[in-house]
Amino acid sequence: MKIGEASRVSGVSARSLRHYEDEGLIVPGRFGNGFRDYCQSTVDRVLVIRSLLESGLPVRLIREFLPSLTDEAGVGTEVVCAEFLHEVQSHRDRLAARIAILSDQQAALDTYLREARRTDL
């Protein structure tokens, strides 16, 4: 299917599809005239990519582990999946730490605003 149809089927913009290709996340086929040709397995891969990106995972991590997540199961798949889950957990832990810092900063600002309003009265 051409890029417009792949975009419609996947719910991902044509621009994003081109970006995924530029990042090495997908490799669509090509028609004789050079137009991209997306097969169903590429569209399925796009859906996985979109889900992982929406989860906040960096492209670097997705690029590294995507083949093991979308290709046929093979030797060492369990090890790769365990490593991927470890990376996801680490990313989640860093995110939780940043959220905690932001929550503390928000609380400090709330306190400051309460105090500032009291002195204005």
From TrEMBL:
Origin superkingdom = Bacteria
User: One matching Pfam family, short form?
Assistant: MerR_1
Keyword flag Coiled coil: no
Q: Which InterPro entries match?
A: DNA-bd_dom_put_sf, MerR-type_HTH_dom, MerR_fam
Say yes or no: keyword DNA-binding present: yes
**Record keywords, A-Z:** DNA-binding
Start and end residues of each HTH merR-type domain = 1-68
SMART domains, A to Z: HTH_MERR (SM00422)
Q: Report the PANTHER family cross-referenced here.
A: HTH MERR-TYPE DOMAIN-CONTAINING PROTEIN (PTHR30204:SF93), REDOX-CYCLING DRUG-SENSING TRANSCRIPTIONAL ACTIVATOR SOXR (PTHR30204)
Instruction: Give the protein's recorded name.
Output: MerR family transcriptional regulator
Where does this protein come from, organism-wise? Streptomyces bobili
